[in-house]
Amino acid sequence: MRRAAVAVGALGLGLGGGAGLAAPTLPHQTVVLQTLDKVTARTGLIEAPIGEEMRLGTLGITARTCLETPPTEPPESAAFLEIRGLEPGKPPQPLFTGWMFASTPALSALEHPVYDVWVLDCAHPLEPPKEPAAE
Fold first, then answer.
1. Within-domain flag for 21
2. What does pTM read for this prediction?
């Protein structure tokens, strides 16, 4: 988790508009994830709406936010994900909670024996806040 927090500052994502961070970010409604089943070698794409749990085999994946730098900045997409193990007859087990970055998937990755999940992009941008009218 600490590595992800350091990476947020290093990549200049203004996650909350803190001083010293380079660029504002653009929130999106959906995160695009690449998946790999290591047993079958099948890959796939998941478009996960923010706040909804998506299933990948025995994993439950919930995207909490997906942010992207504006077009005038170096490209970067980052998503805050919660991934839980969902095995029958057992309570859900937290496997990953934190930021994943499209440009550096190994920086903050899910460590699982069967599945790999990483962020590709954000999709469906939210409307940017309107500027107040000049008087």
1. no
2. 0.77
Q: Are 101 and 121 in contact (CB under 8 A)?
A: no
Q: Residue 34, Cα to own-chain centre: how many angstroms?
A: 11
> Residue 76 has which token pair?
């970067």
Residue 78 and residue 121 in contact, taking contact as beta carbons nearer than 8 Å = no
Residue 19: phi and psi, rounded to 5, are: -65, 145
Q: Which residues pair with 32 in a beta bridge?
A: 47, 121
83, two tokens: 């991934």
Cα(5)–Cα(26) distance, integer angstroms: 18
Does a structural domain hold residue 39?
yes
pLDDT tens, residue by residue, 85-119:
999 999 999 999 999 999 998 898 899 999 999 99
Tell me, what DSSP letter sits at residue 23?
Answer: B
